[in-house]
Structures are given as C-alpha cells and as structure tokens.
Amino acid sequence: MMQGADGDPHRYTPSGRPRARALEIPFDGTPGRWNAITDVPGLEVGYTTLIEGEQVRTGVTAIHPRGRDGAGDPVVAGFHSLNGNGELTGASWIRESGTFSGPVVITNTHAVGVAHAGVVAWTVRHHPSLAEAWLLPVAAETWDGYLNDINGHHVTEESAVAALEAARSGPVDEGSVGGGTGMNCYEFKGGSGTASRVVDYAGTAYTVGAFVQANFGARHELNLAGVPLGRALADDNPLASWSPVPPGAGSVIAVVATDAPLFPPQCTAFARRVSLGLARTGTSGSHFSGDLFLAFSVANPGAITPGLSAFYGASPGHYDTLRFIPWGFLDPFYEAVVQSVEEAVANALVAGEEMVGRDGHRSPGLPRDRVAQLVRSRRSVSDR
After folding, report:
1. pLDDT tens digits, residue range 235-289?
2. Which among 280, 381, 372, 328 has a CA at the least distance from the CA of 28?
3. 176 a catalytic residue
4. Strand partners, 168
5. Is 8 tagged catalytic?
6. Phi and psi at residue 373, in whole multiples of 5°?
7. Mean per-residue pLDDT for 20-35?
8. Which range marks the domain in which residue 96 is found?
C-alpha cells in the first residue's frame, strides 16, 4: 500500500487523504507504526465502498481481530452502550461469556441483517467447522440516510463478504470508505477513522488501537485538541435545516483492540473509556445517537475453549487459563483508549471530503485550512 502524499502514514492515508496530524493538530501519547487499529498484531481491516449514481453512498467495514485465519479462536471482550439508540448484534453473548469469535462488520442501519448474513456466508466458506455449530456474528450500524438511499437494499451479503475478503494489515484508509461512506460527523462529512497508542508494561510494548464509524455530533459542539471550533465554523451547514432528525443525531460505533492481556471485565472497562475520548471532541451524547462500543484483547491465543467444547474435542476435565494485567496498573491503558478514540474521530473528519448524495443532499468537508489556522492561533496564545 502507498502510505500517503509524503510517505508518512501518520499524516496521510494510503489513498493520500490528509489525517489530523497533517493539519498539525497536537495529540498526546505515542502512536504505533501506522497510528491505526491495525498496529495491534494480526488484526486486519477491509472495506467495501458503494458509490453509485446519485443515490448510493454506503458500504461495509470488516475487522478480523486475529486475522482471517484466526476466526475460530475466541477473543475476550466487553461491550458498553453510552446510548442504546442503535444496534450491535452479539452484545448479549459478549455480556454473558465475555468473548466472541469471528469478525466484526459495520454498515448502515438498515443493512445490519444482510451484513450479519454475510459474516455467516463468509464463515461457511472459509471456516466450515466453525459454522457447523452456531454463529453469533457481531454486526453494528450507524445511519446514513441523509446521503444514501438507505431503504434501497444496496448492501448485499456479497458486499459484506467482499469487505471480509479485502481485509489486510498495514495503513488504513479513512473518511468516506466502507461503512463510513455516507456518514456525517458534527454536521461535516464524517465516516471511518482510526488511531493507536503504545503503552509499556513490565518491559513489553503493548498497542491499544481504536476504530470509529463517526456519524454523530452537532456542529456547535465540535472541539479538536481542546480548541472549540464549532461556533467558528457554523457557516455552510446544510444539515442544520434538514428536518427529519435533530442536530447531533446519527450514532457512533467504536471498536477498541489491544494485544495487552486482559480478562473480560477489563475489556468492558476499556469500552466505557470510549465515552471520554468522544467527549474530548465535544459531543454531549444526543438521545438520537446510538453510541455503542466494543473492546477486545487478542492476547492469550488458544486459551479459551469455544462454546461447544465437546464438538471441539475438549475433555470434560479441561480448564481455561487467562493471563491478565492487574487492575491497578491499567490507568496508562485507559489513557491510551481515550487518546486513540479522540484522534480517530479527528482523522475521520479531516479525511472526509464534501459529498453530494441522495436527492442532492450535500455534506460539506471539514474546512482544513481554517481548522489548522484556528488550532495554530489557540496554540500561539497558550504558548505566550
């Protein structure tokens, strides 16, 4: 993959779109090699992007926690709902068992069912023994009906399968790609965004990565790197006069991954910290925004026996064992979650570009030059 306009994957996406660091927006913490969720070892991300004619602006994002070949090895996981006006399938099993198997897919609200079915189809194709038991796929959504003909059934099972097949490690594209294609954030063009942080514990460097499908926030709330921007950028806001939903509606899905060894309640604690990262960007959490967060650890490979233990050949006397970081040493990891989520949202906004879609609806791109100037001005004042 090409790594952006100046070869720096921290500043540009693989397709050359700028990221937040290209605007000199400052962020705390140490990012990983690609400053992306794919810095977590083995994790892969893939997209299907559907832009057709004037009405179709949608797609599917796929995340393989252990890569495509590791779908049958469960990861420990936790789930948190800041606001339940949305959907993430499989959440009841994650709460029950503290685990899930297989990939995660993210799409639009009315395509959750077909994306779920696409995971089943992909698993039958590539992991038939896993599919012989039962599957509880994780499929999540945000609403893209402003720019996309959301009722047109444009996402199909094959759309989901294609995203799952396309998944790779390495730098990750952002903005109007995959499930984020038709999404808006703070009433600018939003979509897909990612970031990562490296945390040292006991002499080992671990990675915390975040991926967001950002489709939330009212314009006046927007804040980046501590700089209030929303009111200064209040002009050119066609979404403000669109009546079916109020400002701030839409939803956000966040996926947090790490290779730090955790056990399930600690993953839930990671998922709760997503709320703090989002709050740094200004949102107060609209009632009309489904804000759902999943966190998992890819550590302890092979440690969790899949649900049908007899089917998988485990003896009745078998024990599972998890190694995990003690609770009292998790604060630097919580900080990494907050920092990664904040920057992932910023990256989704900065990479986003103006889009015109369904019925001529227009979503303006973040005015990057103005944002860079406002951030520079605030920093120069604070440095005096």
Report:
1. 999 999 887 878 889 999 999 999 999 999 999 999 999 999 999 999 999 999 9
2. 280
3. no
4. 45
5. no
6. -65, -45
7. 97
8. 20-302+325-382
